[in-house]
Amino acid sequence: MSNKRITICDIAEELGVSCAIINRALNGKSGVSDELRKKILATAERLGYRANKVARSMARATITLGIVIPSSWQDYFSPLKDGISNELDLLLDYNVVGRYYTVKNSLSHADTADCIKQCIEDGVSGIVLCDVQPTGMEESFEILRSRGIPIVVIGDAEGVSEKCLTAIRTDARMSGRMAGEMLSLMTPEGSCVAAFLGSMTNLEHRDKAQGFTEEIIKSGRFVSGVYETLDDENIESKLISEIFPSDISGVYLATTGAAPIADMLRERGISVKIVATDTGSTVADGIIDGRIQCTIFQDPAEQGRRAVRALYEFLAEKTVPPEKIYIVPQPVLRS
Predict the structure, then answer these.
(1) Can you tell me the distance from the alpha carbon of 132 to that of 164, in angstroms, rounded to the nearest whole number?
(2) What is the phi-psi region of residue 132: left when phi exceeds 0, alpha when psi lies from -120 to 50, beta otherwise?
(3) Which class for 2: exposed (0-12), middle (13-18), buried (19 or more C-beta within 10 A)?
(4) How large is the C-alpha radius of gyration of the chain?
(5) Rounded Cα distance, 69 and 128, in Å
(6) First to last CA, the chain
(7) CB under 8 Å, gap of 24 or more: what pairs does 161-166 form?
(8) Nearby residues of 86 by Cβ (< 8 Å), 6 or more positions away
(9) Alpha-carbon 147 to chain mean position
(10) What is the reported pTM?
(11) Helices and strands, counts by H and E, the chain
């Protein structure tokens, strides 16, 4: 059996028409009758024709994706950026390039707005906005909408979901439930546990708190409190001083400061079971040496890959993604 690739010229020869006519029919252009178009499409399918997407990509203008990403919290954003870069590498042959714009303070609306403004000035085709708070960004999103520049949000898109193409996020409620179930396996029935979260203004963190609380109560244990750290070590240290000593037997650290908190607890001689978040180097070290018993992996690299892929498929192939794309979390143990 021949492995020869079928081209539009093979279809043209089969039907006795020009390659130009075949090209117009296959790409939905005018100048071809409905009857002939149907015949061309049927022949293309029968012969096993597959469009050469690489060749078609090189024939169109370069698609430039603007990647707006914070410079902080490298345990989370470093693998996220790796996922984005890996997907961009796969799309290099499809005439797609990425350009990075760094947000120094992810909680600053002004920093993010400046990056978006620069994206527009640079003529990007679309934007991936990496886990910065979109609240307060309504004006920037409206400008993007008016200019026809699609935006994919990684993380919290609360309040702006109708203005972005899609939101890529972990199933945060499931993350919280998994953490609650793991702690219920490690602690005595009737005992108290606590949760440390980055910020309750973040939708994902609120969902984690809800899922965690639901699962802990279901297991016959009690939540002594859900505490905001704002990923600030000074706040974390103060909270530990205020909460301990106590009868808390386990903590859920749904924050990028999970490893430093685990260090503080050990240094102060506080023995509790710990469930953390993700698998950055500091968390992985904590699991290996026993400071942390389990972590809930949210696969930031996959979130980055899916964001780039969704934006590319919309721009190049007009494929509209679902309003939200959830990444399923996984519990990770030392083994």
Answers:
(1) 14
(2) beta
(3) exposed
(4) 25
(5) 8
(6) 48
(7) 161/323, 161/324, 163/138, 164/129, 164/134, 165/126, 165/310, 165/311, 165/314, 165/320, 165/321, 166/310, 166/321, 166/322, 166/323, 166/324, 166/325
(8) 301, 304, 305
(9) 24
(10) 0.79
(11) 13, 12
Of 298, 77, 304, whose CA–CA distance to 168 is shortest? 304
Q: How far is CA 299 from CA 48, 70, 247, in A?
A: 37, 18, 33
Q: What is the C-alpha to C-alpha distance for residues 101 and 30, in angstroms, rounded to an integer? A: 41
Tokens 């909270």 correspond to what residue? 239
Per-residue pLDDT of the chain (335 residues; tens, 9 = 90+): 355 678 888 898 999 998 878 877 876 677 888 889 889 888 988 888 776 665 566 556 789 999 999 887 777 788 999 999 999 998 887 889 999 999 987 667 888 889 999 999 999 999 999 976 656 778 888 899 999 999 999 987 776 778 899 999 999 999 999 999 999 999 999 999 999 998 888 889 999 999 999 999 999 999 999 999 988 889 999 999 999 988 999 999 998 778 889 999 999 999 999 999 998 888 999 999 999 999 999 999 999 999 999 999 999 988 999 999 999 999 999 99
Long-range contacts (CB closer than 8 Å, 24 or more residues apart) made by 273-276: 273/183, 273/186, 273/187, 273/249, 274/250, 275/179, 275/182, 275/183, 275/250, 275/251
- State how far the Cα of 307 lies from the Cα of 309, in Å rounded to an integer: 5
